[in-house]
Design brief:
The structure is a single chain. With 185 residues, the protein is α+β, with helices and mostly antiparallel strands. The protein has three domains: 2-59, no CATH class; 63-103, no CATH class; 118-184, OB fold (Dihydrolipoamide Acetyltransferase, E2P) (Beta Barrel). It has helices at 2-11, 21-29, 31-34, 42-45, and strands at 65-74, 77-86, 118-120, 125-130, 137-138, 143-149, 152-157, 162-167, 174-175, 180-184.
């Protein structure tokens, strides 16, 4: 396992940021580590990394950069990601082995089905903000509520335009994935 880790670290190329790869390699090559003679205090008491420095972040900075944009989908939610990459870098690969990324019907994080008036929570979480009131006119894609899940705030959006006829949650309520938070007609 140590040899596989060393081989992987030796092949790993991270550009644009400094890394601790040289220190990781030094630890894996140390006899105490290989012979399982290290402890939780081993790094501070025994290991000497004075001759080891972090990898430089300058390598990638030498080459001119171009802006690339990519649409990604995470847990049913679409994001447009912009990144600056070296000119020599190839185009980002599409997920799933090539071809166009598939689009889900409905397109938003509401998960209420194709054009349904039910606005549903895409995952379990806590409602932290309600952006609409009963009687408000909304457009498809408008944020109806903000759901906090895994320390991230997610907009739960309307799949269709219409009038908000019901709001079934209050700020601070816990909801499960698929729970209806509002109705639009």
């Amino acid at each position: 396992a140590i040899n596989r880790a060393l081989r992987a670290l030796g092949e790993l190329c991270v550009e644009g940021v400094a890394t601790t790869i040289p220190a990781d390699i030094a630890i894996l090559q140390h006899d105490d580590f290989r012979n399982n003679e290290h402890s939780t205090k081993w790094v501070e008491e025994v290991l000497n990394l004075t001759d080891v420095s972090a990898t430089s972040a300058e390598r990638a900075d030498d080459e001119p950069k171009i802006k690339r944009e990519l649409d990604v989908e995470v847990n049913g939610k679409r994001f447009s990601v912009a990144m600056w990459v070296p000119e020599s870098a190839g185009a980002p690969a599409a997920a799933g082995g090539g071809g166009a990324a598939r689009r889900r019907s409905g397109g938003g994080a509401s998960g209420g089905g194709s054009g349904s008036g039910d606005v549903t929570a895409p995952m379990q979480g806590t409602i932290v903000k309600i952006n609409v009131a009963v009687g408000d006119e909304v457009e498809a894609g408008d944020a109806i509520v903000v759901l906090e899940a895994m320390k991230m705030e997610n907009n739960v959006t309307a799949e269709k335009a219409g009038t908000v006829t019901e709001i079934r949650v209050s700020e601070g309520d816990s909801v499960g994935g698929g729970d209806v938070v509002a109705v639009i007609e």
